[in-house]
Structures are given as structure tokens and as C-alpha cells.
Amino acid sequence: MICQRDIIMTGLQSIDFKLGSNAVNLAYEFSKNNRVLYINYPLDRLTIWKDKKNPDVQKRLDVIHGKSLELIQINENLWTLYPATILESISQVPVKFIFNFLNKINNHRFAKSIKKAVRKLGFRDLIWFNDSDFYRVFYLNDLLKTDVNIYYSRDNMVATRYFSLHGQRMEGALMKKADAVVANSTYLRDAASRFNPSSYYVGQGCDVSAFDIKKILNAPEDVSSIKKPVIGYIGALVTLRLDIDLIYYIASQRPDWSIVLVGPEDDSFQNSPLHSLKNVYFLGSKNQSVLPDYLACFDVAFNPQAINPITIGNYPRKIDEYLAMGKPVVATFTEAMQVFEGYVCLAKTSQDYIELIEQSLLENSSVLQEKRESFARGHTWEANANEIYKVIEEVLIRKNIDKN
């Protein structure tokens, strides 16, 4: 285990990101045994221009204008930095040499804020853990002189529009420069290994403490009256990640099943023919605290994932939540989902979904429920951090050998 070290963390999500973040969870876990500086992303000019009234943007502008603290202590070993700097908006600059020139300027501005915080905290012998950021931190390792440089891959970010122009080359080059790459899916590990042979699958952490069937006292009114069996999904209903046609097929083929969808809808879902089906129920957004109550009412939980470059390597944390409640789960087959084999039914076709849901309804038992729960509860943030520590220890040993 890595103990009493100084760790700086950069990434694409801030510590106050409302939808949850792997890096934030890991920061809290790392801070149990190490000093950690979690660095929030800096503002860029386009974001200020477009979202000036956004409370998160205002919060960062207050820091830049000296109205709020730049460095905030979260707990005994964890600090977060809101960089008092503004970067140029360069993601859509098409000319490579202009992009590179401006990106180097951005990196120097960003590094200046980080160095100031590092000096103030007295951090030394730095371990740098970078969560899938590869523009504004591209030169950071050289600028900060870190001892260990770990790149964390937890989504296929180069498939997004933001990184469409320069992401492929920049991420690959940054992976090559890293001492090691750690990934939360086997698919992403294999993709990273093309650039860095020191690429490792470290699994995925999840806090499933709230997802305990024994803690459920009452069923929410809007789901308790729905006819059984209930085939349910919890999460954002967005076409980027979910297959509307697949859900429609399941619902239309089995009108005796109630398809319950809990979460906010994007425009495509709101305007989809799913709303015309009498056995499909949209229950809307719910507070995080009551999600286990809804999940408890499902007879089968499903994850009708769309297959595209963004989702293909995805490890859906919701699967662990489903399993922690002992629920039978049917999900779309991908390479990344193979880590759930033996606990989740993986469907390759629409008809597979029908057959596997039928099978799950028939074969569910208390023995299988306990098996699922035990498996999911092993995917803790502590276990995830320990796998990352093993990689860091290997890097430290390797570098020590290299020095000798």
C-alpha cells in the first residue's frame, strides 16, 4: 500500500461535480493514507462567455477575482484547488501547430497555479494521478517534475466531440509519456496497451452501502401500484448511452411486462414512441437517497446500452448497485461487461434480451441473490485504490532499479 505520500490529481471533473466521479471517490480513498491535492479544471474563455450565469462558473470567477479562496481543505489529508487562471479555448482550433502553441501556453498557466498550491502545502516527491485529461495537462509532468506519473482511463473520451480534432494523437502521446496507465475496464486497458505496455486493469470502485435490500422499508407510491413483473432501469435516459429501439422492442414484444424507467430524459427519449406504449412507465428524476427503494421493486434490472465508440469500453457502476440489491440483471454484451459473467446475463441481440429476462424471472433464488450481493460488495473504493497502489509500487521499484 502507498502511505504517507503526496498525490496530486487532475481530471475532467471537479470535486463538486454533482453526478459522481471516479476520481473524486478515489481522492477521498487516497487521502485516508496520503496527502492529496485534487485540482479542479480551470475556466476557459468560451465557458465564461457562454455560461457566465452558471453558479459553478461564478464560483470560479470569484476565485479569480480574489473574492473566494483558491485552496480549500476538505479533510485532514485532502485539499482542493480552484485555479485562479483562465485558459484559452482551443479544443476546436483546426490547425495543429496553432493548437500546440496555445496548448503549451495553457499548460504553463495551469502549472503555475498548481505549483503555488504545492509550495504552500509543502508537497514533495509527487505522485501525479491524471483522470483522462490530455490537453491542459499535456506538459504538466515536465513542468511539475513529478516522481510518478499515472494516467487513468475510465471512458473512451477521444470519441466525444470535444476531443474529436486532437484527442486521438494527444491521448496516445500522453499515455506513452506516463509511467503506467490504469483502466477501469479490460477494453480500455487493451486500448491503452497500444501506446504503453505498462497498462493495467484495476477494476472499478463503487459505494453500494445504501443498496441493501434489508434496509428497504416501504415501496414508493408511483412504482408500488405498477403491475408485476417490473423490468427496470435507473439512470439518465440519454440516447448517447441507451438504445431506444431495444427498449421499444422489449416492451412491444412483452406487453405483460412493465418497463419502468427512473431518471431524467433527453429530447430523443421525450419524443420517442416509448411514450405511446401502455406498459412503459417514465417515473422521472429521483433523489439519490430513494433510488434503492425503487430498485427494490424491480423483478429484473436491465441496462439496454447503446453500442458506440463512447460506450464500448464503459464499466457501468449501476450494475454493481443492481447486484448489491441481489437483483437479476440483464445487460448488453460488450468486452468490458465480461467482468460480470456469472453474475449478469449478457445479451447480444434484442431477442436475447427477451429470453434472458424470461430466464431471470424463472430462475431467481435466494442463493443467486446472495451470490450477486457478495460479488458487488467486493467492488469497493478501497479495493480499487489498492489495485492502483500496486501499480504505483511497481513503478517506484522499476524507477529505483533504473537509477541503480
Topology:
Blueprint lengths: L5 E6 L10 H9 L4 E5 L3 E2 H6 L4 H10 L6 E5 L2 E4 L4 E2 L8 H26 L5 E5 L8 H5 L3 E6 L13 H11 L2 E4 L2 H7 L6 E3 L19 H4 L5 E5 L9 H10 L4 E5 L4 H4 L9 E5 L6 H5 L4 E4 L13 H8 L4 E4 L12 E3 L2 H14 L2 H12 L3 H23 L1
Parallel strand pairs: 1-2, 1-7, 2-5, 3-6, 7-8, 8-9, 9-10, 11-12, 11-14, 12-13, 14-15, 15-16
Antiparallel strand pairs: 4-5
Report on the structure:
The protein has 404 residues and is α/β, with parallel strands linked by helices. It has 2 domains: 6-205 and 380-403, Rossmann fold, CATH 3.40.50; 213-377, Glycogen Phosphorylase B (Rossmann fold, 3-Layer(aba) Sandwich). The chain is built from 15 helices and 16 strands. It has helices at residues 22-30, 45-50, 55-64, 96-121, 140-144, 167-177, 186-192, 221-224, 244-253, 267-270, 291-295, 317-324, 350-363, 366-377, 381-403, and strands at residues 6-11, 35-39, 43-44, 71-75, 78-81, 86-87, 127-131, 148-153, 180-183, 199-201, 230-234, 258-262, 280-284, 300-303, 329-332, 345-347. Strands 4-5-2-1-7-8-9-10 form an 8-stranded mixed β-sheet, sandwiched between helices. Strand 11, helix 9 and strand 12 (258-262) form a beta-alpha-beta unit. Helix 1 (22-30) crosses helix 15, helix 9 crosses helix 13 and helix 12 (317-324) packs across helix 14. The longest helix is centred in the N-terminal third of the chain and has 26 residues, at 96-121. The chain is globular, with a radius of gyration of 23 Å. The model has no long low-confidence stretch (mean pLDDT 95).
